[in-house]
Amino acid sequence: MNPYLKNQIETSSPEQILVLLYDGAIKFLNQAKIGIENKDIEMTHNNLMKAQNIISELRNTLDMDIGGELASNLYALYNYFNRRLVQANIKKETDPIDEVLEHLRGLRDTWKQAIINKREEENKSLQNNENSYYEV
User: Fold this and answer.
1) Of 41, 43, 91, 124, which residue is most buried, by most CB within 10 angstroms?
2) Which of 48, 23, 44, 3 is nearest to 111 (CA)?
């Protein structure tokens, strides 16, 4: 692992690591598409496997007790993604990859927005606490 990425992971919040995982899967799927276009079977396979490993990790780290219905839905979705990527690998087709990419980008963007919203809430809360401290 390169030192920059290692440092980025070590200093990131769990939410930021989640976004990094999505980014990694998206990067590997784009590389797999290039492999298919270039008829490079090894490149295609290796990148699809890397993306599947990330998706499996996302699925395996879901907390079903805390996450409830959302975690169950994500679990099923991640399983579906992996099935589609297996199909893409067997048939060397880009359509399943494009489908998974679209969903992963949407999920990544949703998490990014959730992180922004959380930070804004925390900042407002801090400002409110500071204001009430000075009002006393």
Assistant:
1) 43
2) 23
Q: Which helix (H) or strand (E) holds 6?
A: helix 3-10
State both tokens at 79. Answer: 């399983």
pLDDT tens-place values along the chain, 136 residues long? 777 666 666 777 888 899 999 999 999 999 999 999 999 999 999 999 999 999 999 999 999 999 999 999 999 999 999 999 999 999 999 999 999 999 999 999 999 999 999 888 888 877 776 666 555 5
* Strand segments (E) across 5-114: none
Distance between CA 90 and CA 88 in Å, rounded?
Answer: 6
Nearest of 58, 12, 52, 62 to residue 28 by alpha carbon: 52
In the chain the domains, ranked by start, together with CATH numbers, are 13-135 (1.20.120.340)
Tokens 């099923």 locate to 76
Single-letter amino acid, residue 40: D
CA–CA gap between residue 60 and residue 63 (Å, rounded): 8
